[in-house]
Amino acid sequence: MPGSPRDGIDAQILAELRRNARISLAQLGEKVLLSRNAVRQRIERMERDGFIKGYTIRESAAEATRTVNAVLMIQRHDRMRGSDVIAGLRAIPEIATCDVVSGELDLIVRVEAPDAARIQEIWRQVSEFPGVRDITTALSLSTVIDRQSPR
User: Which residues form a coiled coil (predicted)?
Assistant: First the structure.
C-alpha cells in the first residue's frame, strides 16, 4: 500500500482530482503550474504506484463528504510578522480555510483530508514551519450543520 504522494504537486493534483475527477489535463496543469503532458505523466505514475487505484461515479452528495476534517489552532512566534506561516499553509491543498483570529490563538485552520494519516502529515509539516510556536488540533467527529456545502 502506498504512503503519501511523492511531492506537493502530486498532492495538489490528487486534491484537484478529488474535487473534480473530470477536470481536463490542461485545466489541471493551469492549477498546478505544469504542462498538460507533465500532469498526464504524473497521473500515470501515481496510477502505477497505487496512489490512484481507480475511477468511480459518486451518486450521492453524502459520499463526497467522506473526508476527515480537523481544525488546527495555531499560535505564531510573532503575530505581526507571521506571514511566512500563512504562505506555507497556502501551499497545502487540503487546507480549506484559514482565519486570523483575535485572542490567545493566531490562526484557525480547517483541514479536509482523505484520512487521519494525512491530517497527521499536515500537522507535522505545519509544526515545522519556523514561525509556528504551538498547534492544538481537534478532529471533527461529525458535522451537524453545514451551510457552505452546495445544495
Answer: none
**How much is the mean pLDDT over the chain?**
85
Global pTM value: 0.56
User: pLDDT tens, 83-106?
Assistant: 789 999 999 999 999 999 998 899
SS3 of the chain: the string is CCCCCCCHHHHHHHHHHHHCCCCCHHHHHHHHCCCHHHHHHHHHHHHHCCCCCCCCCCCCHHHHCCCEEEEEEEEECCCCCCHHHHHHHHCCCCEEEEEECCCCCCEEEEEEECCHHHHHHHHHHHHCCCCEEEEEEEECCCCCCCCCCCC
Average pLDDT over residues 127-137: 94
Closest C-alpha among 26, 54, 55, 57 to residue 39: 26
Is there a contact between 119 and 35 (Cβ–Cβ < 8 Å)? no
